[in-house]
Amino acid sequence: MGGKSSKSSKSTKIPTKEVAKKVVTPFKIGDAVKSIYGTGTVEEIRADGTIIFILNNWELAYGSKVKCFLNVDAVQLADVKAVVATPSSEPAIEVVSSPFKVGDKVKSIYGHGTVEEVRPDGTIIFILANWELAYGSKVKCFLNADAVKANEGSADTPPPPPASSQSSSAPASTPVSAPTSAKKFLANSLVSTPYGEGVVLEARASDYVVQLRKETWELAYGQRPTLYLAENNLTASTGGLCGGEKVKSIYGRGYVLSKRDENCVIVESEPEAWSLAYNQLPRMYLEPGILEKLEVQ
After folding, report:
1. Is the pLDDT of residue 284 over 50?
2. pTM metric for this prediction
3. C-alpha dihedral sign at 22, 23, 26, 30
4. Which residues lie within the region annotated Disordered (predicted)?
5. Which run of H or of E encompasses 83?
6. What is the edge-to-edge ordering of all strands in the sheet holding 65-70?
């Protein structure tokens, strides 16, 4: 005889994946949009409502464009006329009359020279006669007319002495040299500079000739840098951190590039410790107290 089975059948539940709810946006690909970062054109619209667009008014290194990924609430439709720039004529440059002409002898806070060019905007371009760079290169100045004065006499030759109103029979007075201010540092003094520790080779009237220590900074073929610095760039050597020394901090190992003041040292990271995009090395502005001096092996 047939009968019903006493065992009840159990239903098996099959797990289903949750389907992400598609967000409806008022935008479409190609729309001109604007955000707090600027205007651009929509490239992609994701199902979750993310709007992806390229900024028109922002460009990175090597011509790279900035791509934004923003929620639909952070993007608005832009006026197409405002996004597409219409070509316009460049504003005319106001011609400024200048008291100088090509060939004039002029002087500035950087020295004296001869005018090579006078631009319509009043810029005076001249080559300094008393300043020379490496390989005999000259320094060219681009200054406003207000920063330049006519050089009435050559700076290389002293002006003639004024005519004396006394008779020739009067005894000539002995010229008295103007007192010179005492120099703060003398030759062979140990000094600290923004570029490292060194020794004064010569104390000149307007500056100091300083040679950096070999342990601090060494050029090709064992040459040591020679600096020409004003007195306010020198302090008595205290044996603290200086340019060229190897140090360690919480950010890794690096080298001191220069010392801005007693409370700030500029450190560049070692290539093996930390490198940025395009192999650029990070530069950090740190307090000397968090740095540990390392011995260079």
Report:
1. yes
2. 0.30
3. negative
4. 151-176
5. helix 80-83
6. 65-70, 51-59, 38-45, 32-35, 76-77
